[in-house]
Amino acid sequence: MEKFENVSGVAAPMPLINIDTDMIIPKQFLKTIKRTGLGVNLFDEMRYDSEGNEIADFVLNQPAYRNAEIIVAGDNFGCGSSREHAPWALQDFGVKVVISTSFADIFYSNCFKNGILPVVLPKEAVDALMDDAQKGENARIAIDLENQTVSAADGEEYKFEVDAFKKHCLMNGLDDIGLTMQKVDAIDVFEAKYGESMPWI
Amino acid sequence: MSASKTIYDKIWDTHLADEADDGTCLLYIDRHLVHEVTSPQAFEGLRLAGRKVRAPEKTIAVPDHNVPTTLDRVNGIDNEESRIQVEALDKNAKDFGIHYYPVSDVRQGIVHIVGPEQGWTLPGMTVVCGDSHTATHGAFGALAHGIGTSEVEHVLATQTLIQKKSKNMKVEITGSLRPGVTAKDITMTIIGETGTAGGTGYVIEYCGQAIEELSMEGRMTVCNMAIEGGARAGLIAPDQKTFDYVKGRPHAPSGADWDKAMAYWVTLFTDADAHFDKVLTIKAEDIAPSVTWGTSPEDVLPIDAVVPAPSDFEDGKVDAVKRSLDYMGLKAGMKLTDVEIDTVFIGSCTNGRIEDLRAAAAVLKGHKIKDGMRAMVVPGSGLVRAQAEEEGLADIFKDAGFEWRMAGCSMCLAMNPDQLAPGERCAATSNRNFEGRQGRGGRTHLLSPAMAAAAAITGHLTDIRTFDGAA
Lengths: 201, 471
Ligand code: SF4
Fold this sequence. Notes:
The complex is a heterodimer of chains A (201) and B (471).
Chain A lengths: L6 E3 L1 E4 L6 H4 L19 H4 L22 E4 L11 H9 L3 E4 L4 H8 L4 E4 L2 H12 L6 E4 L4 E3 L5 E3 L4 H9 L3 H6 L2 H14 L4
Chain B lengths: L6 H9 E4 L5 E4 L2 E4 L5 H10 L9 E3 L18 H17 L2 E2 L10 H7 L8 E4 L13 E4 L2 H10 L1 E4 L3 E8 L8 H12 L7 E6 L1 H4 L3 H9 L8 E3 L4 H7 L8 H11 L12 E6 L6 E3 L7 E3 L13 H13 L14 E4 L1 H4 L2 H11 L9 E4 L4 H9 L2 H8 L2 E2 L20 E4 L14 E4 L2 H10 L13
Helix pairs in contact in B: 2-5, 6-8, 13-15, 13-16
């Protein structure tokens, strides 16, 4: 996984609440056996009509947002299925940060495994950043993971919380499995003891 | 720290393999269920890193999402991408030596139905699957939840999952259900109360008289939709019904192991004064047969209600409701029982078990579906299908005009050819009514199997309490 670098750029506003993983990447694109190439189908059914033509007023089809690296979204972003294709599609499109008041659990953790930072902020902050996002290229938003801040166009700074371990992995581009493999002795010991007390498992 | 624990606390403590100084935990996983859609990249990752599956004997795979459910599927899968995905699972199961139920096996079915049916799911276990409806297995008093593909790879390689503990939430359903009200109505009503994010950060324990009175099938239906309420998992304390269900299943313990297992299982209850961070209590008598009207599972109302207006809501929900009414082609103020249906889908890991088919067949018996109605029943597993045939349910469905399909996820998410056309309106016993879920532009109303059957007959959403079959 690549290291997460600080981001400063245009944010696409998506004020809709409960944006689910079926919207982020519809099921017909889950048939792939690869992780890559899903960016063109990100938000497919909102982004293209049934003939495959772009729907002009969808935010990511507008000139200002075609290369957005940030999304500011309504509450409960990423609800629905566990499909990691959702963060794969976001990542492939070039999205590095999603800001919302809340995220669904599995989507939230899937983001970190794919170099995407989901930022949870209080409603007032998300509302203010949404206003910025609506201004397109006239307002840039900056995210600093090390200091855990989001800076709005007017310089207003919002602090966010992030789990220390997840932050460490993201900043250093670390792969969880490699880290857990270093604890294989502890797992061996646990498994042996556990297997003895629960022989039917 | 208080000595009193919830079931979740107990299972968590028993499975804690390692805890780092920063509080990051490794949770040991007892059962890892795998299906074809969320696993190919994980196996590929193992291959690239030269890793093997740490505990193949605890890993079970079954194709379900992509498989056709038509009778001719023995001839192979037409859609090339679906076929490649299923073939990849065939190969991965073989190469890595994990338990496997191929499409040709009568035990094949939806992973969350196969696990309990085969006795892989047992009380007190940790169960994961690259699928959000893994919560289903919580019905056995197991800690069961969905994971992403990177986590699938992590569990395959290490038999552990990196986790932070969730908070405890209690949902109590007091008293008994009224006639016509089912487990599906309980779980939908809860989501209507909490919203789709109400359970975020929590593991829910469902309890109370109405939950105790449910069969194991009904309990699975309740836990199945814990994820629709945002919860990490939902679970129910095991009791005699649980033990009776498990006993004698192919992979359940027997002999001395059974006794040892029982000694542990009977400790799986929440201590009297254990702490819950959030509590919701609902009276069973207040729960009505329910149906969704919008495009989020929280958009749920009693069947005798009317379609709400955007102005009935606040904040971001106002625009969301405008959008969903537009998508659903519904007008505020319209009676839900006036909503006409084109298609009925009975199946899925929510309501694809034998009890669900019995409930639907009981309504259908002696009736025909409305002219022009497309109706299909897709049993949750090959064994459910066989049992339904033996009990004569299949004939009831067929006589009524339903298509009698092979097992799989089918129109629950429409990855296979079972899809809605744009604008087509479906009464479905599945769990998600998202835009496009059952096919681009398709409109979904979630409800119980009995209500789905009634809708197939009348051609519109129907209150099962007043349905007399004459309509
Ligand atoms: S039946 Fe539906 S919800 Fe259940 S596992 Fe299959 S696709 Fe997912």
